[in-house]
Amino acid sequence: LLITLSNEGTKTLPPEQKPVALLCIGCSLIASSVFLFLKSIWKYDETSKLPRKTTSVLFFEFLVSAGASILTIVAMPHLDIVTNVTIFNGVAVISAILQLVAQCSAKQRNRFLMPCIFGFIFILIGYVLFLLLYITKNPSDIKMAIWVGLAVGGSILVSFNSWESYLKKTISDNSSFTFLKNLCSDIEECQNILYILSSLIRIVVTACVIGAYVPLAKMDWSILTSIPSRETKIIAIIIGVQLFSSTLCHWFALAACKMHALRRCFILPLYLASLAVMALLVIPVTVYYQDYRTSLNGTANINFTDYCKVAVDGRNQSSAVFWWIGFVLVTLYLWKLNVHRIERTQDLLIRRLYEGAFIEQSLLLNTRFDIQTKERIQKDVEQVKVYLCATMWHETYEEMMSIIISIFRLDEYRPKEDPKSNDFTFKAHIYFDDAFEAVGGSRHLNKYAKDLVKVIKEVFGYQQVPDQKIIQTPYGGRLIVNMPQGNKIVVHFKDKELIRHKKRWSQIMYLYYLLGWKLTRKFYTRWVQQSKLSLFLQKKKHNTYILALDGDTDFQPASVMLLIDRLRIYPHVGAACGRIHPTGSGPVVWFQKFEYAVSHWLQKTAEHVIGCVLCSPGCFSLFRAEALMDDNVMKTYSTESKEPSHYIQYDQGEDRWLCTLLLKQGWRVEYNAASDAYTNAPMDFKELYNQRRRWGPSTMANVVDLLGSTKIITKRNQSISKAFMFYQLFGMISSIMGPSTICLLVSGSLTFVLNINSAAALVISVIPPAIYLGLCFRLKSDTQIIIAAILSVCYAFLMLTVAISIIGSMLKEKTILTPSSIFIIFMAIIYLITAAMHPQEFNLVFYGFLYIICVPSAYLLLTIYSMVNMNDVSWGTRETKPAAGAAPPPALTPQTREEKEFWEELQKEYLEPLPDDKEKQKKMDNELRELRNKINFSFFILNAFWLVATFIFQIFNSTFAICIPKLNLQLQETGDIIQIEPIAFMFILGFAVTVVIQFLAMLYHSMEIHFCTNVCSIAFKDEFSSNADSSYRSMEDLETNDRDIESQEDLMNRRDCSAL
């Protein structure tokens, strides 16, 4: 339609307004290049280097951009609409040639060699007919001959767009020329900088072509300033629809391929797109037929057939048919293309984005090209091993029931001996901290450990549960349970007098046991060829995952499968986490439900899309063994805390610290919004404050660690750029300035409600938190929490009053165009749209009101409490002591000698109980207190500076304020002036930009990931198809030995203890 508007014969736009249509065509050409440029700039870092073969790559980009500009801007406006619809099918001519070369060089019995040859012939016939039919009709029309020649030349140049697909996948692999291989390696290594340069070339070339053509065609650019409103609306609607529909087409095409709907939802619709557009031409032709007959006034008698020849130039109908058939034949190989479920975009499409002018042709030709042979190759399925590792301590009976039911549910979904379900196997391990107590001079299982055994018996239900024996271990005892479908639960009961307790040491315990002992040691006990052993061990580490769980996590098998998908398909992903839902009841839980929802909807999705997730929570996250066993990950994670900062970063936020180590080593951490898990949240005020007292300082310590290592991380980690680190820096500054920002919010509320001076309101708003800050340094933590609870109620009533007052003010003054009103409405719209994008969780919006009135408590009082008490490194939750039991000691069976030696060595190296050294503990307490004082001084002095600066600006408000006129709902000035403080305006603007970035990232994540994974979750019974490396197939003896060893271990365990 845009090209038709620029045609000489169109009546919609006058001839002098044609530059407007040409400019819109240029915008549609460069829109995708602008998006690609911005995305590449975001990912740019110092490691991005210029390839050695830059000239060759950029030369092709110049040809394509020049061809597309000449074809669409210069030539096509002079052709008829049928030609313009179908000529883009001729851009497959170079693809046909490259496809022929690739298939002939493969030296295999190709299935699609003949269709490719015939496709090339049909496209050539189409070009010949196009030239003959246009030129022979009026040989004296030199201008038309020029336009036709430019159209042919431009379309041939555009056909170079898909050269990478054939060069990367086939020609370079089968060619003896080192130039082609070096060119491919350069493109892969320097892809980011190449995208930046190619995008700039396309933008510049398009601008030059349109800038040169308009004066040459004797058109004037000055018309752009005087376009009538009718034509402006027509152009704006068409260009908006074109850009929006092209983006949607690109996304839906990817979604169709990832959902295994390649043929009916990708190939077939794109084939029929050109035909559908031509079919739609019948509608306007039919509508205007009677008008045309009336306009003749009886001077001529014309039937409908003759009218169609006048309305639509029929010279190019035959060439259009040949072009379309040739295009279909050239891309016929796509019907047999093997696509994995949730295929990586970079493995599916060669180029990152689409071509706006010929979206359907670019998508089909840009799809990965594989040589289809007549011999079918049976592809192996790589089986992965998943260890479910849950840490327990003082969970309640109901909380234990949740995780045990979830594990049994997974056992039902994935039976061990089912040959149809061979994509992964799993074994569950539960590490129970502090499971023993002293009874009568001996060590017995405590109440919580016995509750776990009762839960397992209850989940078995009606089945007979025989007596269970416990294997004696150097760390306490071990219980092995055979579930109904053959999978095992291994419960490790830890005695804190024999081994270190707390969550991080339980994690270190299972990391070294499962990855160091179970995974690694059996390979090094064999005398085999070292190269094969190393390769096979690397494969095992890559395909072994650990699912970290808490003792109260409730999950479905579908959620586990979605996380496994991420790690199987993306080899650089070291960890993936799901959407965590807090459970429970009461106002404290309601507040957390909305808080968790907003943080996952916006913050975590933004981190996933524009960088990496910084924290993969230990309650439900999947880790790759290869990533955990990387340099400076497991070894550093096992470091004993010896410095005051270590206690805060290492022990208070162990999940975030583990992710920090993975990010530093270059691994990507991802988030999957469709992978749901449920965990119990603190239900009382004190428990919530103690939990966040751990999380707050540890989060700050890890983010500061990442920001301090920006240069190293951006160099090693391809997913993290300096722009993303700047985003994190702004978030860090916002967190630090949180208390003073809340004071300003309260100050504004007091000014609005009490109608007092803003400077006086600021002083009043600072007094309560300042007094609370002083009391926190003097009072016990329980007393601090009681005071915080009282102040939270007072602040909640103030926020409620302010919210009602602002709404009343908007109704009274009949305007929403004040800064406070605009900000509130803006945030409300974003939250509502975000919730609408998650319809299953839309009910959480009703908890948003509670969240708003509790903002001062969460971001002012809680921040003060956590900062002042950061020297308290106790856990703070589930601190109850188990009651003494009187049951007789169970019969113990000793474990094997080799495993016993492993545990004794591991205990001696890492897990030996820490001595109860009073002097050392006292010294560490003093050092923690000193660290607390230093950090608190810096933290609160920055907030004080911010408040003082704001106070000064408020005193001299008339001098520094930004004055803007007040508008009513009709956007008319009311005569009043609104004064805005510069500092507050800049901070609010920065916060708004951050929210917009998170919102856009949420939209992208919801469409690109959440939708696909939700739709694909119904197909979990499908087998995963993966390409096994040929070197792995040659090691079937190692696979057999591996299975033999596991069978021997199972037999040994059956001898040692009976099934529960």
From TrEMBL:
EC number(s) from the headed UniProt entry: 2.4.1.16
Top-level EC class: transferase
Protein name per the record: chitin synthase
Encoding gene per record: LOC102079794
Family that this chain belongs to: Belongs to the chitin synthase family. Class IV subfamily.
GO cellular component: plasma membrane
Pfam families in the record: Chitin_synth_2 (PF03142)
Organism: Oreochromis niloticus (Nile tilapia)
The keyword Lipid biosynthesis appears for this protein: no
